[in-house]
């Protein structure tokens, strides 16, 4: 009973974190599912968003302008990765690693040190861990939830435009897209930019929520993003067919992921093994579709007489 009470008490915090990371997971969804590109820039761009937002807020910048600046910083990081891939011919996974590595130094220069704190008592913030149990508009669940819905609506509109459809076509079949006169290189760069812009935007929220930005705060982000995408697809894939609902399922996947993590911690799991647990969760959910196909092939009904059609 005590464990259940502890879990219930921690639930608002888990939902808040799930929503914040859900924005990042939608960014991962754009590259992983829509563009079909493995982009590892997110581990660096996530921290860049947090660093840019915190420094600007500490220097008196308007909160939403700081968030916009973080988004733009993510766009620039994504553009670098995209150009490394399309202009220089570097494989996307390696291009992402190179950009991620470069961003570590850039983030240090932005903050001037490895960690920069921001106190909610001295600085006005959009979200904070201290407000997570308050029934008010500045409650992170309400604030981030509204922002998330607005972002999904904008993305739904954008990917329904001619430009958005061409990006989706690029991810589905590059050869056919090029045959239709679509500039696939430009679409790849634009898609990666948009993805990392959302990732950096999420990082800006998390930095305010936890009260600090750190050069390593994005470490393992890609694993969390993939976990959210895979969990969302596995649980809601057959229910949510609309594109906007698929994006929403990614956010739900992120929330479920953090609730599971919190439950495991509450049950006494070693917190030092959380990264290992995350990797195992992602591996299992990635393997489930393959196992289903293998099972279906082995247990497929044979025609009467044991003969197969030619």
How do you describe this structure in short?
This protein has about 300 residues and is an all-alpha fold.
Can you describe this structure?
Helix content is 72%, strand content 2%. It is mainly alpha-helical. It has a single domain (2-300), classed as ABC transporter involved in vitamin B12 uptake, BtuC. The chain has a two-stranded antiparallel ribbon with strand order 1-2. α6 (162-172) crosses α8. The protein is globular and about 60 Å long. It starts with a helix and ends in a 12-residue tail after the last helix.
What quaternary form is this? single chain
**CATH architecture verdict:** Orthogonal Bundle
Number of DSSP strand runs: 2
Largest β-sheet summary: 2 strands, antiparallel
Number of helices: 11
Residue stretches low in confidence (pLDDT < 50, at least 5 long) are none
**First and last CA, distance:** 62 Å
Q: Which class do the helix and strand fractions yield?
A: mainly alpha
Q: Using the CA coordinates, give the radius of gyration.
A: 21 Å
Strand content: under 5%
Series of secondary-structure elements, N-terminal to C-terminal: HHHHEHHHHEHHH
- Counting structural domains, the number is 1
CATH topology: ABC transporter involved in vitamin B12 uptake, BtuC
Distinctive features:
mainly alpha; 310 residues; two-stranded antiparallel sheet; globular
SSE order and pairing:
Layout (H helix, E strand, L loop, with lengths): L1 H33 L7 H17 L4 H24 L5 H20 L3 E3 L22 H19 L3 H11 L1 H6 L4 H27 L1 E3 L6 H16 L6 H24 L7 H25 L12
Antiparallel strand pairs: 1-2
